[in-house]
Amino acid sequence: MTVGLVVCAAAFAFVKLADEVQEGETQRVDDRVLRALRTPADPAVPIGPSWLLPAARDLTALGSSSVLVLVVLAVAGFLALARLWRHLALVLGASVGGLLLMLLLKRVFDRPRPTVVPQLIVETSPSFPSGHAMMSAVIYLTLGTLLAQLCPRWRERTYVLTVACVLAVLVGLTRLYLGVHYPTDVLAGWTVGLAWALASGLLASGLRRRSPELRAEAPAAEESEPH
Question: How do the domains of the chain map onto residue ranges?
Answer without folding.
Answer: 61-109+117-227
